[in-house]
């Protein structure tokens, strides 16, 4: 359980940064990013013209970065729950652990099978055609979702996943902080 605390925290930091980059890049008047004139690592070298993104590319890439950070968060949440609770988490006596487990497993599965075009594929029998909710944190109604493209609105939006991570850290892993 202990090793999951810093890993989940790292996923949260990446998620928060991805949101900040997305907000920054969506402002068409944002100051330009600083790209290296030359970037060398090992045997490879790229110059400024190969590495620099246009404003439109930054806007698009920041959206993709946020998308990937969402997937990363879901994977790390699923791993933290699996490590802390085990394979019986879907039938756990605590309904908030059941809910968190089914929500993150469903999100993780959708992204894992097609990361840039996630579709709900809710295979876990305990998670099909049910409503999973942690009050004031997150809610997912899986009824009729299989086969539909994932939308943040299905589980309450991007901040709901962040709140779920905080909830799992503070309630399950006993770690507070922001």
Summarize the structure.
Helix content is 52%, strand content 9%. With 178 residues, the protein is mostly helical.
Which secondary structure elements does this structure contain, and how are they paired or packed?
Elements: H1 4-26, E1 38-41, E2 44-47, H2 48-51, H3 55-85, H4 95-113, E3 131-134, E4 138-141, H5 158-172
Antiparallel strand pairs: 1-2, 3-4
Helix pairs in contact: 1-3, 3-4, 3-5
How would you describe what is shown here?
With 178 residues, this protein is mainly α. It has one domain. It contains five helices and four strands; from the N terminus they run H-E-E-H-H-H-E-E-H. It has helices at residues 4-26, 48-51, 55-85, 95-113, 158-172; strands at residues 38-41, 44-47, 131-134, 138-141. Strand 1 and strand 2 (44-47) form a beta hairpin. Helix 3 packs parallel to helix 5 (158-172). The protein is elongated.
Q: Look at the structure and give the mean pLDDT.
A: 91
Count of DSSP H/I helices: 5
What does the overall shape look like?
A: elongated
Estimate the helix proportion, in percent: 40-55%
The total of beta strands comes to 4
Tell me the series of helices and strands, N- to C-terminal. HEEHHHEEH
How many discrete structural domains?
1
N→C terminal distance: 19 Å
Profile the largest sheet. 2 strands, antiparallel
Strand content: 5-15%
Radius of gyration: 18 Å
Unreliable stretches, pLDDT < 50, 5 or more residues?
none
Reading side by side through the largest sheet, how are the strands ordered? 1-2
Strand pairing plus helix content: what structural class? mainly alpha
């Amino acid at each position: 359980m202990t090793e999951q605390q810093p890993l989940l925290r790292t996923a949260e930091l990446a998620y928060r940064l991805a949101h900040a980059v997305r907000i920054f890049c969506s402002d068409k008047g944002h100051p330009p990013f600083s790209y290296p004139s030359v970037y060398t690592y090992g045997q490879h070298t790229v110059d400024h013209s190969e590495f620099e993104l246009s404003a439109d590319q930054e806007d698009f890439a920041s959206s993709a970065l946020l998308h990937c950070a969402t997937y990363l968060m879901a994977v790390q949440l699923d791993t933290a729950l699996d490590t802390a609770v085990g394979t019986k988490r879907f039938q756990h006596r605590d309904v908030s652990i059941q809910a968190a487990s089914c929500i993150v497993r469903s999100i993780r599965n959708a992204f894992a099978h097609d990361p840039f075009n996630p579709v709900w594929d809710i295979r876990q029998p305990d998670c099909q055609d049910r409503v999973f909710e942690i009050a004031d944190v997150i809610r997912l109604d899986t009824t009729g979702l299989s086969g539909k493209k994932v939308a943040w609105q299905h589980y309450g939006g991007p901040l709901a996943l962040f709140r779920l991570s905080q909830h799992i850290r503070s309630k399950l892993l006993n770690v507070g902080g922001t």
